[in-house]
Amino acid sequence: MKRILVPTDFSEHAEDALKVAAQIAKKNNAEIILLHMLELPHQMSDAITGGASIPETMLFMKKANETLDEISNRPYLDDIEVLEIVKMDKPIHGITQISQEYGVDLIVMGSHGSSGIDELLIGSNTEKVVRNSETPILVIKKDISNFSASNIVFASDFSEETKQPFEKLLKFSKLFDSKLHLVNICTPNSFKPTHEAEHTIKKFVSEFGLTNYETYIYNDTNIEKGIINFSNSINADVIAMCTHGRTGFAHFFNGSISEGLVNHAVKPVLTFKI
After folding, report:
1. For 84, phi and psi rounded to 5 degrees?
2. Residue 211 pLDDT more than 80?
């Protein structure tokens, strides 16, 4: 792991993510890219296009750069190479572009989560990035002074399409010498006999030569609740999931378990796009 991208809006949640990124960077001698997306009001963007309001734009840029400088000098970032970037763009576009341009290995983002009407109509920038990013994303929901990934839950249906994302998880787990807890959540709407579920997981595992792992079948009313309840029951450090990156009407009607976990789980959530 060479580069970790941390988008920041200068909030407390973004700082929680940066503190975790710093711990990972020190463990792996990685560089941190600290990115602030400057999303100007529409009226100012229109004015800039017309050649006006340049002083106002420069003022926003100057203030953002000053704040990044201040953050980069925090003690927990000592001995870490930090690259500061201020970019004018919508968050999802800018984060994706920077991630690709700099060959980022991991994005670490903070999230306050959302629920109810806010979740339905608005969603969070973190949720949108999770839906679209090809780069693995670690979502942090609270201040973690001593980040650990000793026990990682990987919840999956263990289908063929999850094999490639799982290989990325294996690379991440090797950095922390993690034990993997592979779980299939069984619900009334996705019922599968135990012997079938066990056979699917056993066949999946046999292709990777795993040693430090356990497998489970866990029953609950729905998949999201099952993942959260199971993770709590074994005191997991991180929840890992694949996301399909649904958009448009498919996303509206089907939703996404990964995005639901980003909103509702307290534990860190690590996502890999299929």
Report:
1. -100, 135
2. yes
